[in-house]
Amino acid sequence: MKNTVLTFKQAKEEKRKLSMLTAYDYSMAKIIDESGVNGILIGDSLGMVIKGEEDTLAVTMDEIIYHTKAVKRGAKNALIVSDMPFLSYHVSIEQAVLNAGRLIKEGGANAVKLEGGAKVAAQIKAIVDAQIPVMGHIGLTPQSVNAFGGFKVQGKSEAAAKQLIDDAVLIEKAGAFSIVLEGIPEKVAELITNAVSIPTIGIGAGKYCDGQILVYQDMLGMFNDFVPKFVKQYANVGTVMRDAISSYIKEVQAGDFPEEKHTFKIDENELKKLY
């Protein structure tokens, strides 16, 4: 069954946990989708895990659209959510709506995600008014890495935690259908989850959220530049891939690949005509 903003809402009402993963290409999106995940995020995390950047800030609208198109072709049942990259919604409300529209029209996304609380409530409302579903994102918002002074846990003081709760309520009032909670204390995430009627999707926010999201390269052990504390590695696919590639190289060098079963034949009579 196709996951939609309505099925996300129903999941919270029925206390069913939601699962989300990132994806950036057709092949991986197809595997993730066939596994039964509820949602796929084309995250600006591609700046780090695909492009090798130090952060997400250099990702462009055209790049998100390109990767969204690829994911859309591979995923038939998951809700497809595309990140709005840095400076694609900050300058004006009009800019925010136009760029959100591009992700839907050109990329084929089902919804968009943007970072921030009260400061972007007006943009969220305008995008929702344009009939585009919005997923919010508060806490450790990677696009604010320079303002935060690094990738640091947010909401650790009473004032900061209260601000996060207030932001979540404002985001819901603005019309968002769900909110990502990233890098915040577990108990604060629980308070936020209880304060809103829309699903909360946690990443480094503990078990009380309505769902969870991870970057697939992290949870499969494919990206080892650094491993955040909140990541559980369910498999070490990176090691499997390196071993397979090493075996391929050795077989090529030894002349063991390709074998006869990997080659094509020509009729002997046709071959003789070539000599």
Q: What can be said about this structure in brief?
A:
The chain has helices at 5-13, 26-34, 46-49, 61-74, 93-105, 121-129, 145-148, 158-174, 186-195, 216-219, 237-254, 268-272, and strands at 18-22, 39-42, 79-83, 111-113, 134-139, 178-182, 200-203, 211-214. By secondary structure, it is an alpha/beta fold. The protein is built from twelve helices and eight strands.
Salient structural properties:
8 strands, alpha/beta, 275 residues, 42% helix, eight-stranded parallel beta barrel
Poorly predicted sequence stretches spanning 5 or more consecutive residues: none
The largest sheet is:
8 strands, parallel, barrel
- What gap, in angstroms, lies between the N and C termini? 60 Å
Calculate Rg over CA atoms: 22 Å
The number of distinct β-strands equals 8
What is the topology, as strand order, of the major beta sheet? Answer: 1-2-3-4-5-6-7-8
Mean pLDDT: 97
Order of helices and strands: HEHEHHEHEHEHHEHEEHHH
